[in-house]
Amino acid sequence: MLSRSVIRRLGQGLVPRNSHTGISTLVQSQRCLSRSYGSRATQQQRQRPAFSVARQFAPSAAAGGKAALATGMAAAAAAAAYLALPEQQLEAREPAVKSLAAPISPDLQERLRADAASKKLGDVRARMEKMVLESQREIVEGLSDLDGKKFLVDRWEREAGGGGGVTCVLQEGNVFEKAGVNVSVVQGELPAPAVAQMRARGKQLGDGKGKVLFFAAGLSLVVHPHNPHAPTIHCNYRYFCTTDAEGGNEVWWFGGGVDLTPSYLYPEDATHFHGTMRAACDKHDAQFYQNYKPWCDRYFYNVHRGESRGIGGIFFDDLDDRPPEQILAFQKECLDAFLPSYLPIMRKRMHQKFTPAEREWQQLRRGRYVEFNLVYDRGTKFGLFTPNARIESILMSLPLTARWEYMNVPEAGTREAELVEVLKKPRAWA
Fold first, then answer.
1. Catalytic status, residue 304
2. I need a surface site. Which of 40, 179, 280, 403 has the fewest CB within 10 A?
3. Of all residues in the chain, what percent carry a pLDDT higher than 70?
4. Residue spans of alpha helices (H) in 187-323
């Protein structure tokens, strides 16, 4: 039987790399294969010749005409070749990735069982931890398949029972200069600077007299490709809860988003990325994308430079206006949309030719990326203010290389100037 992660990646248009057979085909027809998502291939199906299984998928592409049918047949044939692999070969690649989904909280499985048995689904902390761990595994798997190099997996713990996390980093890969996917599930006493920062945003934390305790769970990732024509991407989804020292006066909220930071503007890439995220938002609330896209433009903004960090995406914070179960489902939708929003762009750009001058421009843009993260980003500030924080994980978002030049202004009419214009005046892409 195929694992759920394999079926899900088929639905996203990916046929993963398998070292035993040399297959590294990346299926590009998402429509064709998405019909198979959520179903499990039987052993009988997996033993059919590739063309037979391809014919099973082909009708879904027929409505698009001959070109779509040809693309769908090619994609399905590639998928069928993967489906035809012996079961033991498919499972041989699983153990290393399975360890990623291992709980951070020792009692997680017990709490999830109790939560399911109660039918109230009230343990948001447990379900958030489970969700981000599963998403981390799938995203690491998808990025690693594209790059051909494995991530370093680093499990860590905070002192005195303060939780922990899993940091996955790929450096100097074939496609990615640096990619990091971090999950943290932490708790403890909120330090005074963090309390002041949150109260300044209108949060009524604790009882106003004693300690403020917190719980935070989230996934954060940043990907910096080698190729200047391939965009950097950032994604973060989190749940935060505070109480007083006795466990009362609970305040909770969700936050997150995803944004794209290209060095060179490709409108078709921007349209694909924003369109994918808008579709995910619209499944839950038609106002989400309309509200969160402008919010993203405002948040990822280098005030001292007078320009946005990138071409945006979605961003939201302090979301608590509906039942937590609904917001959790929305976050899951957005996490599931990450690979489909990004990998098709990477497949187009990762091998594109570039010049030394284009590489230098990429380094300059990365310098602006670093400026935002160290000066304005709330998550970075919170992490640096937190006692016993894991600095390596907090600064995982920074690129390996960046560049600063005195008074670098791109020449009018160049592609570099085109990007800067969009950063100063954000556009609607979906």
1. no
2. 40
3. 73
4. 192-199, 267-282, 286-299
